[in-house]
Amino acid sequence: MQPKLKSKVRCADREIGEVTNVIVDPLSHEISHIVVSMNGSGERQVAMGQVQAVTDNFVELRSSSSEIVALPPFKRDEYVTTHEVEIPHLEENIHVSPGEVLVPFPELEKSVKRRTFFMNLTNVIGFLIGLPIAFPVLRYLMKPMYQPFDNDWLKIGNIGKIKQEDIGVQFKYKKKVKEAYMPESEIEKNVWMLKATPTVLNQVYQGKDMEFRDAAGKTVWTNKKDIPYVAFSGKCPHLGCGFKWRKHKVLGQVFLCPCHLSIYDASGKVLDGPAPRPLDALPIRVSAGGEVEIIDMEFKAGTKAQIRII
Prior knowledge:
- This protein is mainly β.
- It folds into three domains: about 10-110, PRC-barrel domain (SH3 type barrels, Roll); about 115-145, no CATH class; about 150-295, Rieske [2Fe-2S] iron-sulphur domain (Rieske Iron-sulfur Protein, 3-layer Sandwich).
- It is built from three helices and 20 strands.
- The longest helix has 29 residues, at about 115-140.
């Protein structure tokens, strides 16, 4: 059993505080230390080797309280949270729970050498001098970035794939894209869909139809509030990572982003984590034969407002 945040920490002689953080080895994905708040005497970093037993409410240590107090104070600035750095597949080893999971601050980012600073400064000055010459070329090369959004409908599968209400189901599809002046290529994308009950549907639409507009403000499509099928973009609004439908030990079945631990309910509402807004719903229509079509849209990550970029 892994230590839980807020668990009481008890030494051989007495109780000393509670767990405020866990520290994870970014390579092994295992908990290497716990951070203990010492009842007003600061925090100490205790290696997992000192942990004798873990229960639902307590962490038992092998050491005495005097040995733990003698440890150096915990240096918080030497660690970053998993909200700030992506650790792939971390969720496979670390159970999701409210609070912070820490990893050591990357060595290469702890300081910038003087020589590196001046080298970067020289590069910036050179860039600024050359910018007036390069600007016409850059404007020509960047022109494809300002093409109108693609509002074509894409078929992604049949609605028969969804067997239960309020359960997230992933639909994968392929889309042809053309990046600037590169040859056309095909990429694999995905959306998450569900057949929503009236309660979840009302949480998604807030009692009114959802309109989607182009860059000029013209309505492209309107999702009707009484149509039960909902499609969410496959990218997390926090930093654009892929998320999954998982069973959470406290919250039940949820959408979970394993990169930074953002958690959403079936309606896309943020339940926990750093995500600045709910999951992004997409235009959807379902034919009489059950074929599902969407308009592939992407929105800027990390912003509270929903800003379309593709």
